[in-house]
Amino acid sequence: QVQLVESGGGLVQAGGSLRLSCAASGRAFNNYDMGWFRQVPGKEREFVAAISWSGGSTYYADSVKDRFTISRDNAKKMVYLQMNTLKPEDTAVYYCGARPYGGSYDYWGQGTQVTVSS
Hints:
Helix content is 0%, strand content 55%. It is mainly beta. The strands form 2 sheets. Strands 2, 4, 5, 6, 9, 10 and 11 form a 7-stranded mixed beta sheet that branches. The chain has a 4-stranded antiparallel beta sheet with strand order 1-3-8-7, with no helix packed on it.
């Protein structure tokens, strides 16, 4: 199992930047693909970005491509989401998720609020 704790959310003006962090604890962190998802009230959680266990492959939702960058440091058991050129529509609770190889996202953090003002 893996436990996840997100941090780094906050209030930022449109056009600004934030860096989210996800700290993992537990065994074999580098056996997990990691992802960032976001959710607004009344809507389903949506995919934002993902990174493979090695960091060699990354994936992004079209809405954040070229603005957000996902990265990981397996030695520190950390995952990051650098968010640039933020828009009001990026406002959401952001969640870090972990997926074992061949599995589904079964492990989630508690979320961190990101609010982008216009």
